[in-house]
Amino acid sequence: MHRALSRLKVEDLTTANDAMKRCLRLAALAATTDVPVVLLGETGTGKTLLAHAIHNSSERADRAFVAFNASAMSDTLIESQLFGHERGAFTGAQQTVKGKFELANQGTLFLDEIADMSPLAQVKILRVLEYGEFERLGSEQMLHADARIICATNCSLLERVRQGKFRADLYHRLNGLTLLIPPLRERMEELPALIAAELKASAASEGKSINAIHPEAMDKLLSYPWPGNLRELNHTVRTMTLFCEGRVVLPEHVVFPPDLKSTTSAPPEEPLSAPLPSGKLDGVRDLSMAGAVSRHVQFVYDQAGRNQRRTARMLGISRATLARHLKNVAQK
Ligand SMILES: Nc1ncnc2c1ncn2[C@@H]1O[C@H](COP(=O)(O)OP(=O)(O)OP(=O)(O)O)[C@@H](O)[C@H]1O
Ligand SMILES: [Mg+2]
Q1: DSSP states of 161-184 as a string?
Q2: Alpha helices (H) along the chain
Q3: Cα torsion for 46, 26, 187, 235, to the nearest 10°?
Q4: Which of 100, 111, 266, 304 lies at a CB distance of 3.0 to 4.6 Å from 310, suitable for a disulfide?
């Protein structure tokens, strides 16, 4: 577990997997230069974490690390977000605001989910990277852009270029060094160490003295494909810590989310036998996502001894949200 992203360095990361070793070697190399880096990996594999680590291991470490998720930004906001604006530059611009490029000056600009950037965002970023300059909206003054660029994507940018969805010129500008972060299912040899580290941290924060994992519980963990990668692993370990009342983690403490894929692909007319945490789905007709969520909430609630505070913590939601879910469950 790496909670202190602001201090984490590449050399703090260790791995028992060859592909990941290669990735970390490249990350260490990237930290010694200013070349743009593309981090390619599935969701939850650690792209954001590695971006921070590269920044913290670089000469820019004592400057800002600025993250920008362009895919979540509407086109009307893109320019003022990236370049900032002067007071009065447009209706509602009540004060001068610095943009991401300016904030990241002499530091690192992390462009997240880059493959989904709109064509406009692509053009705007390309222009800055080509000319090394930009101006705030409403200002004539040219500002120098000296930000080291790290991008993250969960799909191949080259593929997006081939599909005509990503500009080839921007791709070439961004793609100095591509670091491939393998999914967790391809680096299962890391699992025991990752589980041990997360278990130690979460047991400490829960005030529990757990000192072993039952072999059957370990088998369960080792045979799961981890579609949500490290994020899901850490979440699962935290949940199992909460369930575990003694010193040994038992198989029933290891809980995975309902397999939504197999429940939704089953023919609706047939009785279902998809695995759900509380047993079989025989006779269940509600195959909607909302139905699956309700069943999961109910399951965790029961497992948590119908304790709302604990349930909310295990689900990673607020108590108000939980209360809403439970109300929905009760109304069904
Ligand atoms: N090597 C690691 N050891 C322990 N925990 C890790 C490691 N890498 C990532 N994590 C944890 O896994 C979670 C997901 O990591 P991160 O946010 O970096 O993934 P991501 O690839 O950026 O995901 P997304 O595509 O959804 O943005 C975080 O809580 C992070 O702390
Ligand atoms: Mg991320």
Answers
A1: HHTTSS-HHHHHHH-SEEEE---G
A2: 18-31, 47-57, 75-83, 100-103, 119-131, 157-162, 168-174, 191-206, 215-222, 229-243, 260-265, 289-303, 308-315, 319-331
A3: -10
A4: 304
Q: Where are the domains of the chain?
A: 10-182, 188-249, 257-332
Q: Phi and psi at residue 198, in whole multiples of 5°?
A: -70, -40
Q: Please, which pLDDT band fits residue 284 given cuts at 50, 70 and 90?
A: low
CATH architecture for segment(s) 10-182? 3-Layer(aba) Sandwich (3.40)
The pTM of this model reads 0.80
- Please name which of 93, 163, 99, 107 lies closest in space to residue 125, comparing C-alpha atoms: 99
Higher pLDDT, 74 or 67: 67
CATH class of 188-249: mainly alpha
What does the block give as tokens for 250? 């038992």
Placement of tokens 């970023």 in the chain: 125
| pLDDT, tens digit, 9 for 90 and up, residues 70-117 | 888 888 889 899 999 999 888 888 999 999 999 999 999 999 999 999
5 lines ligand 1 (CB under 6 A): no
If one residue of 15, 48, 114, 153 were mutated to test the ligand 1 pocket, choosing by the most ligand atoms within 8 A of its CB, it would be 48
Distance 2 CA to ligand 1 centre (A): 9
Contacts of residue 46, Cβ cutoff 8 Å, sequence gap at least 6: 181, 229, 230
Q: Is the CB of 295 under 6 A from ligand 1?
A: no
Establish how many alpha carbons lie within 13 A of residue 247's alpha carbon, considering only the half-sphere containing its beta carbon. 3
State the average pLDDT over residues 52-74.
94
Which 3-state string (H, E, C) describes 5-56?
CCCCCHHHCCCCCHHHHHHHHHHHHHHCCCCCEEEECCCCCCHHHHHHHHHH
> Which residue's structure tokens are 């965002």?
121
Instruction: Find, among 17, 87, 13, 88, the residue nearest to 49 by Cα.
Output: 13
